[in-house]
Specification:
By secondary structure, this protein is an alpha+beta fold. It has two helices and four strands. The chain has a four-stranded antiparallel sheet with strand order 2-3-1-4, covered by helices on one side.
Length: 66
């Protein structure tokens, strides 16, 4: 499972956009968003770097959460 901080994700619409970007890379990925803490958790068979790039390409700068 990968966790990313996504500071620009501020609403449910943002979370859906991030989820669509992740699912475009891996349709079977498990995705959950925590809007309060502005982070997402992703379980995927694609690499962490590819998931991060998909989120970035959707317009949301991000970094791996500690």
């Amino acid at each position: 499972m990968y966790r990313f901080e996504v500071p620009g994700m501020k609403c449910g619409g943002c979370a859906k956009k991030v989820e669509r970007a992740v699912k475009a890379k891996d349709g079977s990925a498990a995705f959950s968003a925590d809007l309060e803490n502005r982070c997402v958790s992703v379980t995927s068979f694609v690499s962490q770097a590819d998931v991060a790039a998909a989120i970035q390409d959707a317009g949301y700068p991000n970094h791996v959460a500690a």
